[in-house]
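Take the subject:
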Amino acid sequence: MNSELLKTISLFSTDKISEERKNVLQPMIAYVQEKLTAQETIRLHFICTHNSRRSHLGQIWAQTMAYHFGIHHVYCYSGGTEATAMFGKVAETLIAQGFQVLQISEGNNPVYAIKYAANEIPIICFSKKYNDAFNPSAAYAAIVTCNNADDNCPIVFGAEQRIPIKYNDPKAFDGTDLMTTKYAERSLEIAQEMFYVFANIKK
């Protein structure tokens, strides 16, 4: 794993998660554990409205933590109720926290390859609707990361389970002096919780 990313992960602890958030995260733990015990593929699909910030961070950190804890056959995806673009500040934040981020296409909705380890397949990120052909159509858990997506997607077709794990949108701080700080905080909050999820999986 990237050395700077390992430094970031070394700051995490399962003790830092509140009891309230542990209860929120428990259905995700149970889903991953059930799939692992049954020796089935684990597909986690993170969904928010625009697929621009929180859902990408969820996808990236969940995939990274599965690797970190040696949980195999985990495949993480992201989508929205509409497609926009992965916001540039997300890429900047991930680089600061130890990821290698490669932009592999231009345009209004660029494609990024996110690398957590030199010899592992990168995580491919671009904005897309949750039911885009790039994403799974069945046998996955829908991890809903924002209120709007939760309200606007009463049914996520193909999902075996729908798990709300909601985060405040760092977009609220765009263009302010707190923007860099708040994006870093949100990324680390999601990372810490994905650390907790996979730390609690019994292999």
User: Anything to note?
Assistant: The mean pLDDT is 95.
